[in-house]
Design goal:
- By secondary structure, the protein is of the alpha+beta class.
- It is built from four helices and three strands, in the order αβββααα.
- The chain has one domain: Sufe protein. Chain: A, CATH 3.90.1010.10.
- Helices cover 43% and strands 18% of the residues.
- Helix 2 packs parallel to helix 4 and helix 3 runs antiparallel to helix 4.
């Protein structure tokens, strides 16, 4: 089995059995995003206390790349300080546009091939953009 096969299996696994898919009972932040190019949509629900993402869920619909990427992101940021989660999102976006990440991306590295398909970069970064949006805007109570 070569590395590309392993990457494909990781993406398929996260798409078919997404981690942290669903809703939180009492999120502190809720943010949604839409990729108007293809119609993928995502909603993130976060439970943040003292600057740490204590719990997170996502819901929505989209292609296998956007759903797998969202699942991988949820796994990567739960339990992390917001600043680390935002740094990871920024580095992932750099990585899938052909740059180099300065942080370990874990399963997200399986999406390395997306950089060869600019139209798919928006799919892979949808959840990451939503995470950044969640902390860029003042939040109303959900």
């Amino acid at each position: 089995m070569n590395l590309d096969d392993i990457y494909r299996e990781t993406i398929l696994d996260h798409n078919q059995a997404p981690r942290y898919f669903g809703h939180l009972a009492h999120p502190t932040q809720v943010v949604g995003m839409l990729n108007p190019t293809c119609g993928d949509q995502i909603q993130l629900e976060l439970l943040v206390h003292d600057g740490v993402i204590e719990d997170i869920r996502f819901s929505g619909q989209g292609c296998s790349i956007s759903m797998a990427s969202a699942s991988m992101l949820m796994e990567a940021v739960i339990g992390r300080p917001v600043s680390e989660a935002l740094d990871l999102a920024k580095n992932f976006k750099l990585f899938v546009t052909g740059g180099t990440s300065s942080v370990a991306l874990g399963d997200l590295e399986s999406l390395h091939g997306v950089s060869q398909f600019p139209s798919r970069v928006k799919c892979a970064t949808l959840a990451h953009n939503a995470l950044e949006k969640a902390f860029a805007e003042p939040q109303e109570s959900p």
